[in-house]
């Protein structure tokens, strides 16, 4: 069980403040940043538990507002349903496999996501091909979410490849993050991977996440989003590499 002490509280608050700022500037990145920072300190299962409430709360508004919710559900219901169903399988694996291998997998996913952004690799054009691309990408997104807590691959790449209007894409990503994270919380509870302490700390982390988002939205007006995105992706690449090496050498 994770010991709750002032140092941990400060770490969680700082992590979600930073992750919230990133989301405030570029509109995404809170789960990825918080996972990368927390997995290196408290371990993968605890990191996944801590991101639940901040991720859901900061994405609910994004998922509901925009005017495209009905169209998103009609177009992507197979993708979303597949992602929710396979989260449970991923969490079952999380509960039974040595965690360091899943931490290494998370490192690979984060590093790959960062590299694809820095090098402008059009991976979405690859994952969106095939007759059953919607179900396959949804299933793989849910599986990896359950195993690592990250929904970015191939979920975000698949959504980006659909050439949705910008506002609809942002809302669709919000819907994806809300449904997969909600399923993740329910599945982790079913596998007894959540404790009252972790749930309480996750709820408390909502406050610094929202404060960080407000700060990020203010910074957006003063910073070049392209420059910030490069710095953000470079930091993720370094953290993903660190998680991978730490898991393999540990």
UniProtKB/TrEMBL annotation:
Keyword Cell membrane: yes
Main location: membrane
Membrane protein topology class: Multi-pass membrane protein
Localisation: Cell membrane
GO CC aspect terms: plasma membrane
Residues spanning the membrane: 46-69, 76-95, 101-121, 168-187, 193-211, 231-249
InterPro entries, alphabetized: TM_pro_TauE-like, TSUP
Keyword Transport annotated: yes
Superkingdom of origin organism: Bacteria
Keywords, alphabetical: Cell membrane, Membrane, Transmembrane, Transmembrane helix, Transport
Protein family according to the UniProt entry: Belongs to the 4-toluene sulfonate uptake permease (TSUP) (TC 2.A.102) family.
Name of the protein this chain belongs to: Probable membrane transporter protein
Lineage start: Bacteria, Pseudomonadati, Pseudomonadota, Gammaproteobacteria, Oceanospirillales
